Structure formats: C-alpha cells, structure tokens
Amino acid sequence: MPAMLQEHKPKVNIEQFREDVDSWIKQIRAELSILKDLPEMVEMNAELNQENYESIEELKEQVKEIKQELHLIKLMQLKFMLEEN
C-alpha cells in the first residue's frame, strides 16, 4: 500500500514554488510601500485643500469689493446723467 501512495503523490517542483513565493513577497512588499506613503499623501492633500479654501475666501472678498466698486460707479454715472439734464 505505501508504494501506491507514493505513486499518487503530486510531483512538487520546489524551484517553481520558491519562485512563486518570492514573487508574492515582492508583490506584497510593493503594495505595502504604497500604503506607507499614504499618510504623507493624505497630509499633503489636506494642506492643499486648506490652501485652496483660503484662496477661494480671498477671491470671494475681492469679488465683493469689485461689486461694491461697480455699484459706486453706476451711482456716479447716474448722478452725472441727472446733473446733465
């Protein structure tokens, strides 16, 4: 009976198995290195978002000032037109 068991054992290619395991390890290490950079990228993204928010707020204020200046110019034109008549 032991001879029959030996006949049915699958032939294992140890060298191929080692190459496969090495390949898996390299892949896992590559994926882990990407994850190590993730907190740094998230922090940088948060900083950029804050800078963008501040820029948007500054631009909003500038638009508000320009609207006020345009309103003043319109009033001045209206006054000038009324004085001409």
Protein topology:
Elements: H1 2-8, H2 14-84
3D structure, described in words:
The chain contains two helices and no strands. The protein is mainly α and 85 residues long. The termini are far apart. The model has no long low-confidence stretch (mean pLDDT 88).
How many individual helices? 2
Overall morphology: rod-shaped
Q: What is the helix fraction of residues, given as a range? A: over 70%
Largest sheet: none
The ordered string of helix (H) and strand (E) elements is HH
Q: How many distinct beta strands? A: 0
**How far is it from the N-terminal to the C-terminal residue, by CA?**
122 Å
**Number of self-contained structural domains:** 1
Q: Stretches where pLDDT falls below 50 for ≥5 residues?
A: none
Mean pLDDT equals: 88
How much of the polypeptide forms β-strand, as a percent range? under 5%
Structural class by helix and strand composition = mainly alpha
- Rg of Cα set: 37 Å
Briefly, what is this?
With 85 residues, the chain is an all-alpha fold. It has two helices and no strands.
